[in-house]
Amino acid sequence: MNRETTCSFTGHRPEKLPWRDNEADPRCAALKRRLGEAVEQAYDRGMRHFMCGMARGADFYFCEAVLELRGRRPDVTLEAVIPCEEQAARWRERERERYFTLVERCDQETMVQRHYDKGCMLRRNRYMVDRSALLIAVYDGMLGGTMYTLTYAMRQGVDVEILDVE
Fold first, then answer.
1. Which of 59, 68, 149, 164: disulfide with 125, CB 3.0–4.6 Å?
2. Could you tell me where the DSSP H helices lie in 11-159?
3. How much is the pLDDT for 159?
4. Is the pLDDT of residue 28 over 90?
5. Is 87 helix (H, G, I), strand (E, B) or coil?
6. Stretch 30-57: mean pLDDT, rounded?
């Protein structure tokens, strides 16, 4: 894997999205469309390897957009970067099923550490940024993990593309 051709992603979980987990909302559909376009543009810029942190919400949308691109561009690879083994353990069954289906469709899986602790999400995000030339972010300007990851990426000199939530 080459950092110069690697793109990673950061974005909000459903609790921070205006439509929460109602993906039928037209704003969600619009975001998914823009995410698909951003992934396509990243490919046009030379990105071939994509990394996703596999959280609920925007990460799932990104993962699905990359899988769709991979269906048309066989040189695309997708890596699920999982913070810890029990990432999905407390999620609702529907979300767990979606998660496991998506992880299964990825080309590779990286587990950052075995057990959960309060720093594992941070380590997952740094792992992705440290191996990427581009970070795509779905970000609403609020404090939190997405903001931290964006700030870290900028400090590391990684190109950042921010998609506003709405």
1. 149
2. 26-44, 58-72, 93-105, 120-129, 145-155
3. 98
4. yes
5. coil
6. 98
Count how many Cα atoms sit within 13 Å of the Cα of residue 23 in the half-sphere of its side chain.
10
Each domain of the chain, given as residue ranges in start order, spans 3-164
Exposure string over 116-149, b if 16+ CB within 10 A, otherwise e: eeeebbbebbbbbbebbbbbbbbbbeeeebbeeb
Question: pLDDT tens digit string along 45-104?
Answer: 999 999 999 999 999 999 999 999 999 999 999 999 999 999 999 999 999 999 999 999
User: Do residues 77 and 123 lie in contact, with contact meaning Cβ atoms separated by under 8 Å?
Assistant: no
Is the pTM value of this prediction over 0.70? yes
Alpha-carbon dihedral sign for residues 125, 2, 159, 18 = negative
pLDDT confidence tier of residue 1, bands split at 50, 70 and 90: confident
Tally helices (H) and strands (E) across the chain: 5, 6
Considering only CA atoms, which of 60, 61, 65, 58 is closest in space to residue 15? Answer: 58
- CA–CA separation, 98 vs 122, rounded Å? 23
CATH number of the structural domain 3-164: 3.40.50.450
**27, 95, 17: which is closest to 56 by C-alpha?**
95
